[in-house]
Amino acid sequence: MGFNETNTSQKIRISLSQKAMLTIEDDMTAFEVPKLTTFINQVISNFWDIAESSIDNYLSNKELELKERLSDSSIDSYSIEQAIQILLKYEKKQLINKTASYTITRFCHEADIPSY
User: Fold this and answer.
1) DSSP-derived secondary structure letter, 106
2) What DSSP element (H or E) covers 47?
């Protein structure tokens, strides 16, 4: 499933290393996907909800996961909420640092990326 609607205002530039581009090209061949934009859109469609690059979405999912795991504990709900907020704050800091550590690479391609 790709995204059929093309709107130039939704295009973004994606920076990829040469190694990443070779991997994508190999996968496109293996999965018989003829267009880069179709492939990129499919990957985003399949993984956007668990991607660490969408920090707010990732943290929301992480919060739900932590609440579910701790719901059967004997700890009071206030303490659980406080602990979760501390963990999420730490996780957010780690994700921001991780994102900032990525360097701009040599290879750029444009792809139609939907707004979530």
Assistant:
1) S
2) helix 36-47
Average pLDDT, the chain: 82
Strand partners, 110: 13
User: Residue with structure tokens 């880069």?
Assistant: 36
- The pTM of this model reads 0.59
**Residue 100 located in a structural domain:** yes
Indicate whether 83 belongs to any domain: yes
Other beta carbons within 10 Å of 112: 19
**What 8-state DSSP symbol labels residue 110?**
E
3-state secondary structure of 111: strand
52-86 pLDDT, tens digit per residue, is 878 898 999 999 999 999 999 999 999 999 999 99
Residue 34's domain comprises 8-112
In a domain, 29, yes or no: yes
What is the total count of domains within the chain? 1
